[in-house]
Amino acid sequence: MAEQRVRWGILATGGIAATFTADLVDMPDAEVVAVASRSQESADGFAERFGIERAYGDWASLAADEDIDVVYVATPHSAHRVAAGLCLEAGRNVLCEKAFTLNAREAEELVSLAKERGSFLMEAMWMYCNPLVRRLKSLVDDGAIGEVRHVQADFGLAGPFPPSHRLRDPLQGGGALLDLGVYPVSFAQLLLGEPSDIVARAALSDEGVDLQTGALLTWESGALASVHCSIIGGTATSASVTGSRGRIDIPYGFFFPDHFVLHRDGRDPEKVTADPADGPRGSLRHEAAEVMRALRAGETESPLVPLDGTLAVMRTLDAIRDRVGVRYPSETGEPEGESGEPALTRA
């Protein structure tokens, strides 16, 4: 028996929105019914590209569209609080890109709003929904490598990015940490939970965003995590989990792996590969499928990407920024834009 189709609205028309929508239109139980941008021209072009029926030149019209079951928010993270909040206020369910918001305060506001409205809310941390990452977590939780002692993860891009690029723009929440560092931090906390102590250092740009950041996270168990992110150097983008009785190594692209290697003391290494049936390596369909499963089940959050976990990651990102001295204009009282909303590129 075919699953009931879930009707999606897409808020923003940038690269990640296009990637997600391309996966959605290939899913038989998903239907993309509307798209919104702050530019009607951009919305119309996106709608034509993907065969979407309705295109709105403002976010509020999408939020008010009662034919939509869930809205995917794909703006820069500086606008997540405004965009997702608008949708939640209108009674829409929301899947919001990561970093979830600029800071933990904004994240807590969205979570509270979703709970008040009884709406579904989830961070689009696709790594948590990836079948192979779920397999890795299951092995770790089952004690395959003993007690976790150390997690290492990095994500860096070579750049260089000009000061005008969103990754360098404080008004758009620029810097390596929120855009890239959210992956290593989320990976560590997937396995170990929220750390008890954080030490961090960063190289900052003239604009005041982090060009690269390294952090050492510690837990009361004695476990450590070394995380690094960069927009000035291409890293291995790999990860490893070391336990008391073994290790798991994930090569390039640890957040969407095609395989990992399990080393257990006294045994030969085991290569664990992705199931070809899970689709292309970079597919976002797993997080979409989890959202649709949860909506059909009447759930207001996903057990794979729980809101408490999202809030914990945001608290860690806040702590790292505090230690390296990165603050955004909306956090310091500086002007943000003519409308009073966070400034962002047209999406």
Task: Outline the fold blueprint.
Blueprint: E1 6-11, H1 15-24, E2 30-36, H2 40-50, E3 54-56, H3 59-64, E4 70-73, H4 80-89, E5 93-96, H5 104-117, E6 121-123, H6 126-129, H7 131-141, E7 148-156, H8 176-192, E8 197-204, E9 210-218, E10 224-230, E11 239-243, E12 246-250, E13 259-264, E14 270-273, H9 285-296, H10 307-324, H11 329-332
Parallel strand pairs: 1-2, 1-4, 2-3, 4-5, 5-6, 7-10
Antiparallel strand pairs: 7-11, 8-9, 9-10, 11-12, 12-13, 13-14
Q: Would you give an account of this structure?
A:
It contains 11 helices and 14 strands. It has 347 residues and is α/β, with parallel strands linked by helices. Strands 8-9-10-7-11-12-13-14 form an 8-stranded mixed β-sheet, with helices on one face. A 6-stranded parallel β-sheet has the order 3-2-1-4-5-6, with helices on both faces. The protein starts with 5 loop residues before the first strand and ends in a 15-residue tail after the last helix. 50% of the residues are buried. The C terminus is likely disordered.
